[in-house]
Amino acid sequence: MEITHEECWALYKRAFAAGLEAAKARVPTAMAVNQNSNPFDSRSEALSRDAVADDTSGFACVFIYPDNSPFALWLKNQGLARPGYEGSVYIYLYGYNQNLQRNEAHALAMAHVFRDAGIKAYVYSGT
Asked: What's the rounded Cα separation, in Å, for the pair 36 and 21?
């Protein structure tokens, strides 16, 4: 499949915009953080408990396969993706105050747009 520079930019911008919308719409699950009397034992007496609006810190990546496809090569040449594992390139997402749920929502939306365009795309996330 041949794809021009302009088509690549249009696809990337459409995917990134979808990711921004998905991340904005994602309301993170709040979490509670305890300060325990023994910081190395979560079962020790809780001295304080605070609510944190954002959930766990984390990142998400969109993997594009294969790494020698025209779109993957274009992403690398533009500095938008890095070489990945097993013949892939990946787009690393870590914004949103490093909020895992928002980064995942962004990555999933981007991958969906890429797959709709016939590009093999998968998401990986972690803390």
From this structure: 38
Q: What is the DSSP letter of 115?
A: H
Please indicate whether residue 79 or residue 42 has the higher confidence score (pLDDT): 79
Concatenating the DSSP letter of every residue in 17-49 gives: HHHHHHHHH--PPPEEEEEESSTT-TTSPEEEE
Domain residue extents for the chain? 5-27+56-126
Which DSSP category does 68 fall into? T
Query: What's the rounded Cα separation, in Å, for the pair 14 and 8?
Result: 10
**5-27+56-126 is classed CATH 3.30.70:** yes
Calculate mean pLDDT across residues 96-115: 93
Integer Cα distance of 115 and 120 in angstroms? 6
User: pLDDT (tens digit, 9 = 90+) per residue, 18-51?
Assistant: 999 999 999 877 666 678 888 888 788 887 777 6
In whole angstroms, give the CA distance from residue 76 to residue 21.
24
